[in-house]
Amino acid sequence: MTKLRVGLLFGGRSGEHEVSIVSARAIAEAINAQENANKYELLPFYIKKDGAWQGPDVASQVLSTGEALSCDSKSNLWQFPAEAESIDVWFPILHGPNGEDGTIQGLLSLMQVPFVGSGVLGSAAGMDKIGMKSIFAQAGLPQVKYMALTREEIWSKSTIFAKCDDIEQTLGYPCFVKPANLGSSVGIAKVRSRSELEAALDSAASYDRRIIVESGVTAREVECAILGNDSPKASIIGEITYESDFYDYETKYTIGRADLLIPAPLPNSVIQQIQEKAIQAFTTLDCAGLARVDFFYVEATGEVLINEINTLPGFTSTSMYPQLWANSGVSFPELVDQLIQLALQRSSIPEKHE
């Protein structure tokens, strides 16, 4: 049997470059595992921080060492390695901007080769917090209160004070200030006063031209993993607990700073609500393959509020997404296999049912 050539695409022009390398190493191991070795031939491709693509030889070295390569000012950003022409299915694991936001998905679509994960629409909508929340609101998914701002409004002396007044009156304190298009909690701040709000808005505007401010809520943070295309399935529910003020970048990626409870100790009725809303969010954005959907569970009122969807979640052996499926009966190598098969299914034209 001829093996399918899987192009594992990682690295990228994002602040989550190093996280992508860690995810790619775990996926490469799963593709090469005994269960998948007879099905797939792995060809890794590494995108440096300047956007230059590197072929399997260089990419394999990065996977081996786990270290990002330095950028070369002479890099040709528009030249793809020759091996890219032989790929049967792509497995992009590029977290954050320029990889999770529909840009690489558009490129792979133009290549006319199947790829793992959501297409342009689901990826772009899932990455942009303002667009995502607008779509969720239209779909009737309950959320915390939020407001959207632009960099121009924040950095303009004629509008910033009025905007801060609106935030205080509409959302109150504490509230969270976030860049609209960054992942892994980059640029996010929890604020409790006017001075902190102004500083956080200024900082967030340095990361992105569009900013979102969300009302704080006393709630448990729970997550659900989705797997599938047009008939997706939901995993069991996991919960994140931590001692820090909120789930920031340092807490998220420092060993021992946060704990994952799988399964989360929740009433069956709440579990069912979360699973149903996770699938609804996935299908509303026309996602495909995989996603992790994050929620707030307000125990005092019994409310389940959707926080966000992540269309290319962390994929290390200790990440929440694969752990949720492992505890739902799907091993890491099996999960990677299913995602590749889902990519192939999505690209094929189904037979018409009479």
Describe this entry's structure for a reader.
- By secondary structure, the chain is α+β, with helices and mostly antiparallel strands.
- It contains 12 helices and 13 strands.
- The chain has helices spanning 17-31, 56-65, 103-111, 120-127, 129-138, 151-155, 160-170, 194-207, 249-253, 268-284, 320-326, 332-347; strands at residues 4-11, 40-47, 53-54, 89-92, 146-150, 175-179, 189-191, 210-215, 220-228, 233-242, 258-261, 289-298, 303-310.
- Strands 11-10-9-12-13 form a 5-stranded antiparallel beta sheet. A 4-stranded mixed beta sheet has the order 3-2-1-4.
Low-pLDDT windows of residues: none
Strand content: 15-25%
Secondary structure: helix percent: 25-40%
In order across it, which strands form the biggest sheet?
Answer: 11-10-9-12-13
- CATH fold description of the largest domain: Rossmann fold
